[in-house]
Specification:
The complex is a heterodimer.
Chain A (H helix, E strand, L loop, with lengths): L1 H9 L15 H14 L6 H17 L6 H26 L7 H16 L10 H26 L3 H20 L4 E3 L3 H8 L4 H29 L6 H23 L2 E2 L2 E2 L4 H19 L1 H11 L1 H6 L4 H27 L1 E3 L7 H11 L11 H20 L4 H30 L1
Antiparallel strand pairs in A: 1-4, 2-3
Chain B lengths: L6 E10 L2 E11 L4 E5 L6 H9 L6 E6 L2 E2 L5 H7 L1 E4 L11 H5 L14 H14 L17 H14 L4 E5 L7 H16 L3 E5 L3 H7 L2 E6 L2 E7 L5 H10 L17
Parallel strand pairs in B: 3-8, 3-9, 6-7, 7-8
Antiparallel strand pairs in B: 1-2, 1-4, 4-5, 9-10
Helix pairs in contact in B: 5-6
The chains are: A mainly alpha, B alpha/beta.
Chain lengths: ~425, ~260
């Protein structure tokens, strides 16, 4: 604190004018601002975190083998695929558009890697390390095509992607009509669903995540200090870093204590993939020109256009991101079952992915939402589904409960928004 | 200050099909002046503004900016000259905060297209302070939470921030209450004090007499008088708006203060 003050004086920085209205500081100030925020309708991630804790506590009592280290790892692997799709959905929803094709684009991505790794008659197939990027690239092209029809021609995204939903489903069914399914033998592809890091590697990753987060926060603080912009509360920053440390080391500790039939497991690769894309896409959305323009177009497309933003380009790129994330999710889902069959991409995948984004608080009308919403929403959906399965409920119950949670989450958000409009004026 | 007006329009005509929207209109804005542009609905105010802003191109006539003839074929040309328009709908993104709106489409970024958030925040704070916009608690709050007057202030501040020389305000007080109108009018006066030229389009003569230095009246797409605010009454302006006779016969320019 004092060192920074001295530094500013040393640089002969012009003295900052006194703020018009002193913001309350310290813990009481934080609580005061938070309650004001909640009253104004900015619930943030609070409801979903509370909801998730409630769900975990409920199933811990309802099912004896739910609250175990082994099952924790299961939930991570089960949520990975859907969460990837949901990350992409957030971008599409930020524009106020919809992408209904993602589940079968995921299927196309999975089908593509399966085809590419399939050993040919003459010998071995393509390595997963090459097949995965190629499959993603293929899906990016699909996304670019769909996005162009939306952005350049002006066909509603609902219709374009509904057509995509049918077309890509058709391609999968057509291609697999003969063999019924393709087994995935490539180890790299299967790793996305079943690789576990060693205990030591797990701890190192936790250290890396914590260190990276702390460094990111510190650089932000230094940048703000240099510019003479008020920095948040020191204790709050420290609390956040400590919180991240506890969560990452906690997750690794739980995963490291898991075992399957005596073989010790560790941190699943899927967890790293989830966190990696959470960080990268959050950065893209919040810290880059592109991300800012996505929020701008979603908030007021006409204003964005007048401000010189190429609205069509933003729309197309967003659909490309959505398809790319679908492909990644599809590959992970295929790796979970080591195969692709005619039903791939069907079932509740599409609606789970959209629900995950929306449960987390992403608006369907554009301009409002964050990548972490999809992360939390994906966790809720996977936990509910896993819990109900573990507790031995009928699969019908899973749909009913997920639907109810979706309705509750969006209702709560809508009510909160209405309060915000009132508080704002 | 030089006698050359900042902006001068000569004999501007514009028609849309068979509708003659503007006929030989002259218009002039001096340095550091608030010029009000008034007229009844359909008098051609919006068309004239759009010709300056580059949304429309005049069919005939000359546009001089700082004494030099210029061609304005699009909003980008206007922006390059230092002309910014604040339209009635403000074109703000409700979901973005004040800083993000100020920089929308012109964000400060590095080579890797990463945003320079501290720089944008500092400059926004400076602009707000220089315009004495003090009612906004935090420039990091979403625009959705601001009042109508504050939103107008943000839109005006955004127009001013880009080294603009001429700011055109389209009905800035139309949707505002008394106190907020006062806020915005004070802001308009400050712009002129800082040497900017302002074109103020308004239906509200009270607002105009509060802020404008001169008043240009249009009627049925023609000039119906240019008045010095200090030398005219509201009744005279109303008369010009509703029953003004064209002040200019083809080829003979109107003079300031001419009355029908």
């Amino acid at each position: 604190m004092s060192a920074a003050d001295v530094e500013i004086v040393g640089q002969d920085a012009p003295p900052a004018p006194p703020p018009e209205e002193e913001e309350p500081t310290g813990l009481s100030g934080f609580i005061q601002r938070s309650t004001a925020n909640i009253r104004a309708g900015n619930l943030g991630v609070l409801p979903i975190v509370v909801g998730l804790i409630f769900i975990v506590v409920f199933f811990s009592f309802a099912a004896t083998n739910f609250f175990t280290a082994d099952n924790f790892g299961n939930i991570i692997i089960q949520m990975a695929g859907t969460t990837m799709l949901a990350y992409g959905v957030v971008f599409v929803l930020l524009l106020g558009e919809i992408d209904l094709s993602i589940s079968y684009v995921a299927g196309i991505g999975a089908l593509a890697v399966a085809e590419l790794q399939k050993p040919s008659a003459s010998g071995s197939g393509m390595s997963g390390l090459l097949a995965i990027p190629l499959a993603i690239l293929l899906c990016v092209v699909i996304g670019a095509a769909q996005g162009s029809i939306v952005a350049k021609v002006g066909v509603p995204s609902f219709v374009v992607t509904l057509a995509g939903f049918l077309i890509w489903q058709g391609v999968i069914v057509y291609r697999l009509a003969g063999p019924g399914s393709i087994i995935i033998q490539d180890r790299w592809i299967n790793y996305t669903g079943s690789y576990y890091f060693s205990h030591t590697a797990g701890w190192l990753i936790a250290l890396l995540v914590t260190g990276g987060y702390a460094a990111g926060v510190l650089f932000g603080v230094i940048g703000k200090r240099r510019a003479g912009i008020p920095v948040g509360e020191t204790w709050l920053i420290v609390t956040k870093i400590v919180g991240i440390a506890i969560v990452s080391f906690g997750v690794v500790a739980i995963c490291n204590s898991a075992s399957i039939q005596g073989t010790p497991l560790g941190l699943p690769l899927a967890a790293v993939i989830i966190v990696f894309f959470l960080v990268v896409l959050t950065y893209l959305a919040k810290r880059t020109l592109f991300g800012r323009h996505v929020y701008g177009v979603g908030g007021n497309a006409e204003a964005a256009r007048r401000a010189g933003i190429s609205v069509a380009r933003i729309r197309i790129v967003v659909f490309m991101i959505s398809s790319a994330m679908a492909a990644i999710g599809g590959i992970i889902l295929a790796a979970n079952v080591n195969s692709v069959d005619t039903n791939f991409g069907g079932g509740t995948l599409l609606l789970d992915a959209i629900s995950a984004a929306v449960i987390g608080g992403t608006s369907l009308f554009g301009g409002r939402g964050e990548i972490r919403n999809a992360f939390l929403g994906g966790a809720v959906i996977a936990t509910v589904s896993n819990g109900l399965n573990t507790a031995g409920y009928n699969p019908g119950t899973i749909y009913i409960v997920t639907g109810t949670i979706l309705l509750l989450a969006v209702t709560l958000d809508t009510v909160a928004r209405r309060l915000q409009v009132r508080a704002g004026r | 200050m030089s006698d050359t007006p900042l902006l001068e329009l000569r004999d501007i005509s514009k028609s849309f099909g068979s509708v003659q929207a503007l006929t030989d209109v002259d218009f002039e804005v001096r340095h550091g002046e608030v010029m009000a542009l008034v007229g009844d609905n359909g008098a051609g105010k919006s068309t004239l503004i759009k010709c300056i802003a580059g949304t429309h191109t005049a069919d005939s006539g000359q546009i001089l900016f700082q004494g030099e003839e210029v061609q304005i074929h699009g909003p980008k040309d206007a922006a390059r000259l230092g002309i910014e328009v604040v339209y009635q709908d403000l074109a703000l993104c409700d979901n973005l905060d004040v800083v993000q709106n100020m920089y929308l489409g012109r964000e400060a970024h590095d080579r890797l297209r990463r945003l320079k958030e501290p720089e944008m925040e500092t400059k926004t704070a400076e602009t707000m302070r220089s315009l004495a916009v003090t009612t906004i608690r935090s420039i990091r709050q979403p625009v959705a939470t601001l009042s109508g007057g504050q939103r107008q202030s943000v839109a005006v501040a955004r127009a001013v921030m880009w080294n603009s020389k001429l700011v055109i305000l389209d009905e800035p007080t139309a949707a505002l209450g008394v106190a907020q109108t006062e806020q915005v009018l004070a802001l308009v006066r400050r712009l002129a004090e800082q040497g900017l030229s302002v074109v103020l389009i308004s239906h509200n003569l009270h607002d105009i007499f509060e802020t404008a230095h001169r008043i240009t009246v249009l009627r049925l797409g023609r000039n119906a008088g240019v008045f010095e605010r200090a030398k005219v009454t509201q009744q005279e302006v109303v008369h010009a708006i509703t029953a003004g006779v064209p002040t200019k016969v083809s080829g003979i320019p109107a003079t300031a203060g001419t009355q029908a």
